[in-house]
Amino acid sequence: MSGFTIIGTGNMGGAITALAERGGVPVQNVAHGDDVDAFTGDVVVLAVPYEALGEVAAQFTDQLAGKIVVDITNPVDLPEGRRREIKAGSAAAELSTRLPQSRVLKAFNTTFAATLASGELAADGAPPVPVTVLVAGDDADAKTALIDAVDASGAQGIDVGPLARAEELEATGYLQLSLAMGDVVPWTGGFTLVR
Protein backbone atom coordinates (compact mmCIF):
# COMPACT_ATOMS: atom_id res chain seq x y z
CA MET A 1 0.00 0.00 0.00
CA SER A 2 1.30 3.45 -0.90
CA GLY A 3 -0.49 5.07 2.03
CA PHE A 4 -3.50 7.14 2.98
CA THR A 5 -4.74 10.40 1.54
CA ILE A 6 -7.02 12.08 4.06
CA ILE A 7 -9.34 14.81 2.80
CA GLY A 8 -10.33 16.93 5.78
CA THR A 9 -8.18 18.41 8.52
CA GLY A 10 -10.66 18.46 11.41
CA ASN A 11 -10.71 16.24 14.50
CA MET A 12 -11.44 13.03 12.63
CA GLY A 13 -8.90 13.77 9.91
CA GLY A 14 -6.26 14.33 12.58
CA ALA A 15 -7.27 11.20 14.49
CA ILE A 16 -7.11 8.99 11.40
CA THR A 17 -3.75 10.54 10.51
CA ALA A 18 -2.48 9.59 14.00
CA LEU A 19 -3.81 6.05 13.59
CA ALA A 20 -2.15 5.62 10.18
CA GLU A 21 1.17 7.03 11.38
CA ARG A 22 1.20 4.68 14.41
CA GLY A 23 1.06 1.84 11.90
CA GLY A 24 3.83 3.27 9.73
CA VAL A 25 1.47 4.22 6.90
CA PRO A 26 2.47 7.39 5.01
CA VAL A 27 -0.24 10.08 4.96
CA GLN A 28 -1.05 12.86 2.51
CA ASN A 29 -3.31 15.45 4.16
CA VAL A 30 -5.59 17.56 1.98
CA ALA A 31 -7.80 20.34 3.33
CA HIS A 32 -11.42 20.24 2.22
CA GLY A 33 -11.68 22.64 -0.69
CA ASP A 34 -8.04 22.31 -1.80
CA ASP A 35 -7.41 21.66 -5.48
CA VAL A 36 -5.14 18.61 -5.80
CA ASP A 37 -3.97 17.04 -9.05
CA ALA A 38 -3.16 13.61 -7.63
CA PHE A 39 -3.66 11.64 -4.47
CA THR A 40 -0.62 9.68 -3.32
CA GLY A 41 -2.53 7.20 -1.15
CA ASP A 42 -4.20 4.02 -2.35
CA VAL A 43 -6.73 4.63 0.44
CA VAL A 44 -8.53 7.98 0.36
CA VAL A 45 -10.41 8.81 3.55
CA LEU A 46 -13.18 11.40 3.22
CA ALA A 47 -13.00 13.00 6.67
CA VAL A 48 -15.60 15.62 5.81
CA PRO A 49 -19.19 16.18 6.96
CA TYR A 50 -21.94 14.28 5.19
CA GLU A 51 -23.07 17.50 3.49
CA ALA A 52 -19.70 17.75 1.71
CA LEU A 53 -19.59 14.21 0.26
CA GLY A 54 -21.33 15.13 -3.00
CA GLU A 55 -19.08 18.14 -3.57
CA VAL A 56 -15.90 16.14 -2.87
CA ALA A 57 -17.06 13.28 -5.12
CA ALA A 58 -17.82 15.70 -7.96
CA GLN A 59 -14.55 17.61 -7.55
CA PHE A 60 -12.31 14.53 -7.44
CA THR A 61 -14.15 11.87 -9.49
CA ASP A 62 -11.15 11.33 -11.79
CA GLN A 63 -8.55 11.31 -9.00
CA LEU A 64 -10.64 8.82 -6.98
CA ALA A 65 -11.06 6.33 -9.84
CA GLY A 66 -9.46 3.01 -8.88
CA LYS A 67 -8.87 4.16 -5.28
CA ILE A 68 -10.22 2.72 -2.05
CA VAL A 69 -12.51 5.51 -0.81
CA VAL A 70 -13.56 5.47 2.84
CA ASP A 71 -16.73 7.25 3.95
CA ILE A 72 -16.61 8.07 7.67
CA THR A 73 -19.78 10.15 7.89
CA ASN A 74 -22.81 9.87 10.13
CA PRO A 75 -25.66 11.71 8.41
CA VAL A 76 -27.07 13.63 11.37
CA ASP A 77 -28.70 17.05 11.52
CA LEU A 78 -26.92 19.08 14.19
CA PRO A 79 -27.48 20.64 16.67
CA GLU A 80 -30.85 18.86 16.91
CA GLY A 81 -29.14 15.49 16.61
CA ARG A 82 -31.73 13.91 14.31
CA ARG A 83 -30.67 11.13 11.97
CA ARG A 84 -31.16 11.90 8.30
CA GLU A 85 -33.06 9.53 6.06
CA ILE A 86 -30.94 8.53 3.06
CA LYS A 87 -32.82 7.20 0.01
CA ALA A 88 -29.92 4.91 -0.92
CA GLY A 89 -30.00 3.44 2.62
CA SER A 90 -26.70 4.93 3.77
CA ALA A 91 -24.30 7.75 2.99
CA ALA A 92 -21.77 5.15 1.80
CA ALA A 93 -24.26 3.59 -0.64
CA GLU A 94 -25.09 7.05 -1.95
CA LEU A 95 -21.37 7.80 -2.35
CA SER A 96 -20.75 4.54 -4.22
CA THR A 97 -23.28 5.58 -6.88
CA ARG A 98 -21.42 8.87 -7.30
CA LEU A 99 -18.04 7.11 -7.55
CA PRO A 100 -18.67 3.97 -9.63
CA GLN A 101 -14.96 3.63 -10.51
CA SER A 102 -13.90 3.64 -6.83
CA ARG A 103 -14.02 0.91 -4.19
CA VAL A 104 -16.13 2.52 -1.46
CA LEU A 105 -15.89 1.38 2.16
CA LYS A 106 -17.63 2.53 5.33
CA ALA A 107 -15.38 2.80 8.38
CA PHE A 108 -14.33 5.02 11.32
CA ASN A 109 -17.88 6.33 11.87
CA THR A 110 -18.50 4.34 15.07
CA THR A 111 -15.45 5.71 16.92
CA PHE A 112 -14.98 9.22 18.32
CA ALA A 113 -11.95 11.25 17.26
CA ALA A 114 -10.35 11.33 20.71
CA THR A 115 -10.68 7.58 21.07
CA LEU A 116 -9.26 6.95 17.61
CA ALA A 117 -6.36 9.32 18.25
CA SER A 118 -5.42 7.51 21.46
CA GLY A 119 -5.93 4.07 19.91
CA GLU A 120 -7.58 2.62 22.99
CA LEU A 121 -10.64 2.65 25.22
CA ALA A 122 -10.42 2.58 28.98
CA ALA A 123 -13.47 2.01 31.17
CA ASP A 124 -13.41 3.06 34.82
CA GLY A 125 -10.86 0.87 36.59
CA ALA A 126 -10.49 -1.56 33.68
CA PRO A 127 -7.33 -2.00 31.63
CA PRO A 128 -7.43 -0.26 28.23
CA VAL A 129 -8.52 -2.23 25.16
CA PRO A 130 -7.71 -1.48 21.51
CA VAL A 131 -10.11 0.71 19.57
CA THR A 132 -12.36 -1.24 17.20
CA VAL A 133 -12.82 0.02 13.62
CA LEU A 134 -15.76 -1.63 11.88
CA VAL A 135 -15.38 -1.88 8.09
CA ALA A 136 -18.12 -2.57 5.52
CA GLY A 137 -17.66 -2.89 1.77
CA ASP A 138 -18.18 -5.04 -1.29
CA ASP A 139 -14.51 -5.34 -2.31
CA ALA A 140 -12.70 -7.94 -0.20
CA ASP A 141 -9.21 -6.74 -1.16
CA ALA A 142 -10.09 -3.13 -0.29
CA LYS A 143 -11.39 -4.19 3.12
CA THR A 144 -8.28 -6.28 3.77
CA ALA A 145 -5.99 -3.35 2.88
CA LEU A 146 -7.80 -1.01 5.28
CA ILE A 147 -8.07 -3.60 8.07
CA ASP A 148 -4.35 -4.42 7.76
CA ALA A 149 -3.50 -0.71 8.15
CA VAL A 150 -5.82 -0.40 11.16
CA ASP A 151 -4.34 -3.53 12.77
CA ALA A 152 -0.79 -2.24 12.19
CA SER A 153 -1.65 0.81 14.31
CA GLY A 154 -2.52 -1.38 17.30
CA ALA A 155 -6.25 -0.88 16.81
CA GLN A 156 -8.59 -3.71 15.80
CA GLY A 157 -10.14 -3.72 12.33
CA ILE A 158 -13.18 -5.94 11.83
CA ASP A 159 -14.89 -6.83 8.55
CA VAL A 160 -18.64 -6.53 9.19
CA GLY A 161 -19.75 -7.56 5.72
CA PRO A 162 -20.93 -5.90 2.50
CA LEU A 163 -21.49 -2.20 1.93
CA ALA A 164 -25.17 -2.78 2.72
CA ARG A 165 -24.06 -3.03 6.38
CA ALA A 166 -23.17 0.69 6.24
CA GLU A 167 -26.77 1.42 7.17
CA GLU A 168 -26.31 -0.43 10.48
CA LEU A 169 -22.92 1.20 11.03
CA GLU A 170 -24.51 4.63 10.58
CA ALA A 171 -27.26 3.67 13.05
CA THR A 172 -24.57 2.60 15.54
CA GLY A 173 -22.71 5.87 15.00
CA TYR A 174 -25.95 7.78 15.54
CA LEU A 175 -26.63 5.88 18.76
CA GLN A 176 -23.15 6.66 20.06
CA LEU A 177 -23.51 10.36 19.15
CA SER A 178 -26.89 10.47 20.89
CA LEU A 179 -25.43 8.95 24.05
CA ALA A 180 -22.56 11.44 24.08
CA MET A 181 -24.82 14.44 23.39
CA GLY A 182 -26.99 13.28 26.30
CA ASP A 183 -23.92 13.02 28.57
CA VAL A 184 -24.49 9.28 29.02
CA VAL A 185 -20.99 8.48 27.72
CA PRO A 186 -17.97 10.79 27.37
CA TRP A 187 -16.65 11.93 23.99
CA THR A 188 -13.56 9.87 24.84
CA GLY A 189 -15.66 6.69 25.16
CA GLY A 190 -16.96 4.31 22.57
CA PHE A 191 -17.77 0.78 21.59
CA THR A 192 -15.35 -2.07 21.19
CA LEU A 193 -15.64 -5.75 20.38
CA VAL A 194 -13.97 -8.24 22.66
CA ARG A 195 -13.08 -11.51 20.95
From TrEMBL:
Domain Pyrroline-5-carboxylate reductase catalytic N-terminal residues, every copy: 18-75
Domain of life: Bacteria
Listed name of the protein: NADPH-dependent F420 reductase
Keyword Nuclease on entry: no
Signal peptide: none
The UniProt record lists the keyword Oxidoreductase: yes
InterPro entries listed in its UniProt record: NAD(P)-bd_dom_sf, P5C_Rdtase_cat_N, STEAP_metalloreductase
